[in-house]
Amino acid sequence: MNTFVQALGWTLLHFLWQGLLIAGATALVLAVLRNARPEARYAVGCGALLACLAWPAAGLYLRLAGSDSAMDMYAGGLLPAALLAPNSLPDMSTLLRAVVGVWALCAALLAARMALGMLWIQRSTSQPVGRNAHWQARLSDLALDAGITRPVRLRVVRDIASPLAAGIWRPVVLLPASLVTGMPPELIEALLAHELAHVRRHDYLINLLQNVIESLLFFHPAVWWISRGVRTEREHIADDFAARQLGEPRRLALALSELERLQFSTHHLAIAANGGVLMSRITRLLRPAPQALNWKAAVLLLALAGACLGIYGQAVAADTARKADGRPVLDFGTCAKPQYPADALQAKQTGTVNLSFQVNAAGKVEDSSVVRSSGHPALDEAARSGIAKCTFKPALAAGKAVSSPVQIQYVWTLE
Fold it and tell me: Is-above-0.85 flag for pTM?
């Protein structure tokens, strides 16, 4: 079976419990910060999303590296090795191939959806300003008031129901044509101030990364829950910024209430003013109040934490049993230092050889091979031949000697 497919399959399966742990920790922190500024909760959510990406990425890298020492370093002090590489499980080649195949297909479809969204935004931004020069001038004035020095373009389009911001280097605000004719100008300005807050904070770039994480880890509800929270807090931050710029939160609340009557058009690759729950945002602007702790959610969180601790406990028990049985131990008295090949010594060749072999129940080396070459075949073969002559104290399982795989590194240096 392809090594990459196997490593990726295990990585995806392990993220099922890893995502639960990240979600549980995030929920605890958010509960503590429920009455803090939205910037704090936003930072926690973004950090949790990055952890959702970084943790499986690190696990995939270490599985591909295939190093026991790397596995132990990754697991030690954080997670038992049994959770990282469950070698005691039966052969799951067919299941892993199916998992990777379905994941790749779904991720490709979501990536295509992202690409179509970006093409739609590009097509919308290519429209001429035309007779909307008045709103372009007003947007430019609002941008200067918001401290935005780069030009911000405005385009009026028909197939959206809410203003939205897009673009990184050349930001653009898309304004629905229905709002230009159906909403008072002062309310449109309030919505534009909200979109400029997204432009000023470069939220479009963060939102793109957020969509990438959602596309890669679409199968885990924790990712969608964390991501929804990030979008909600992002809208709260933009609301607060716009309210400060306008000097009257009520005007923005009135503008949002008008949006509630329109059909939602959600383009996740852009930052829209109708993001989050509109009624809760309106209430927050008009009557901000401390948030009470949701005890029902707390009970669910405790159950989730208990399940994660149960998984961790089982892994610790398995890891403890594995370590109690021990690994093969080299008997140094049976080994002689590998002889430096004469040609390699004369050419002053050096390098590190990664070897893999099996130690049978009698402690003898079998099936030795070079996993990673030193770059010099003579050094590789000398190291492999040298280790083949060694004797080990075999690994034990339930008190009986068993065959066990071993990986080592041999470093050739010149003193």
Answer: no
